[in-house]
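Possible regression after last week's pipeline update?

I re-ran a chain I had predicted before the update to compare outputs. Posting the input and the new output here so someone can diff against the archived version. Not blocking, just want to make sure nothing changed silently.
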Amino acid sequence: MTSTTASAPDVGTSIDDAPLGIFHFKAAATAGAGFFTDSYDLNVIGTVTLLAGPQLHLGAGQTSMLTSSTLLAVAVGAVSFGRLGDLLGRRRIYGLEAVLMIIGALVSAFAPNFTVLLVGRLILGLGIGGDYPASGVLMTEYANTRNRGRLVGLTFVFYVFGQVTAYLVSLLVLAAGVPDHIAWRLILGIGVLPSLLVLYQRRHMPESPRWTAAHGDEDRARQDFEAFTRAGNTTFAAAPGAHGRGFRIRAALGNRRVLLTLIGTAGSWFFFNVAVYGNSVSQPLLLKSIVPHGSTVSNIAINAVLVVLFSLGGAVIGLFVLDRLPRRVLQNVGFGLCALAMLSITVIPALSGTVLPFAMVFGVSLFGIAVNPN
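New output (post-update):
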């Protein structure tokens, strides 16, 4: 039986003040595996449409539907699973999003026609969308105050790793001489592997102690905290305002400060995603429009070099400076570089006329994205 004293910290304070330990990196790896899978599944579609186009007779409209419908499903999945996580608990939805990603990847890989491929991508998008809040919340709720920025930033580096892996896997499959009509199915099917890892990891995670405490069960919060951190004999005070009711959207939106923060962060992310995702998932198609007669292998190779140099480079630099620079400064740098690069491509026709100038300027936009305005 746990005795609670007036001097004991609540669960949130205990997690906030915990020294950096192995369990923090375990949480980062578990959350990061989700972002890695999300990124891989999103970023292979550009290559897949190039390879599957002749076999499935994809027109420009169908190609656009395959990319845009997935992103629409991501939005639906994020809202749905995010709310379910608040109502039912984090652990009850951990893994469900991975199951959807597995099903979506398999349906896509074995699709006999455009319609089935579209359905598979929609299912996959729901799973990816569900994983966004699951992975983000998982890390933020286990992170301590001192290292929160770097730990959350580390999970987003996994997204870049997924992007790099998407191009490297595509390049290896094509370089191995696999016929195009099999290659695109293999590339999609490989997405099942990281989803299985996510499913295994998530089912072995305890419930979030913060969520449990917010719903008035301090004893269970203590057990979950000790199970994950390997801490012993932990004593928690009741969480402030915890009466078993948890989070209420209406009450939060009635708080002016919370509402303005939500509008600022969600609004920034909305415009950021509008500018970014349409380009990132279509990189091979963008490059093909500049070099229409170039080989698919050279197309993917150039994109692989771009994401390694600019995306991965930006992510590493962003992670290094995340706790050294104000968040707003880093956001302004990232947004500014991205906007400048895209504006330059728009207003300077010569940049989109040949590969090297386009690749360099587009690479600057990738750097701005990855340096962590998220």
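Follow-up from reviewer: compared with the archived run. The CA atoms of residues 248 and 254 lie 10 Å apart. Marking as no regression found.
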